[in-house]
Amino acid sequence: MTNEKMHHYINEVLFLHEHTECVQEGVTMETAYSPGNQTGVLDFFFQKPSGFLSLLDEESQMIWSMEPNLPK
């Protein structure tokens, strides 16, 4: 998960922001950035309240945690 967040950050900051800055300065460059499924992968883990980590946290706080609840 850390790798996905770092990869998303690098793509977002280094490529998109730098590209925007170059365009504002009149520098022409090719756009080779493709976000792919980065957002989908990160949403799967971090989206609230239905992300995997939110569900895992909620389930771990229950006194009688039930394994069948996790796939929901």
Verbal overview:
With 72 residues, the protein is an all-alpha fold. The protein has one domain (2-69). 58% of the residues lie in helices and 0% in strands. The protein has helices at residues 2-24, 38-46, 52-61. Helix 1 packs across helix 2. The chain starts with a helix and ends in an 11-residue tail after the last helix.
End-to-end CA span: 21 Å
The tally of beta strands, per DSSP, is 0
Spans of 5+ residues with little confidence (pLDDT < 50)? Answer: none
What is the molecular shape? Answer: rod-shaped
Cα radius of gyration in angstroms: 18 Å
The helix fraction, in percent, is: 55-70%
Order of helices and strands: HHH
What is the topological layout?
Elements: H1 2-24, H2 38-46, H3 52-61
Helix pairs in contact: 1-2
How would you summarize this macromolecular structure in one to three sentences?
This protein is mainly α and 72 residues long.
Keywords:
single chain, 72 residues, motor protein, 0% strand, 58% helix, rod-shaped, 3 helices, mainly alpha
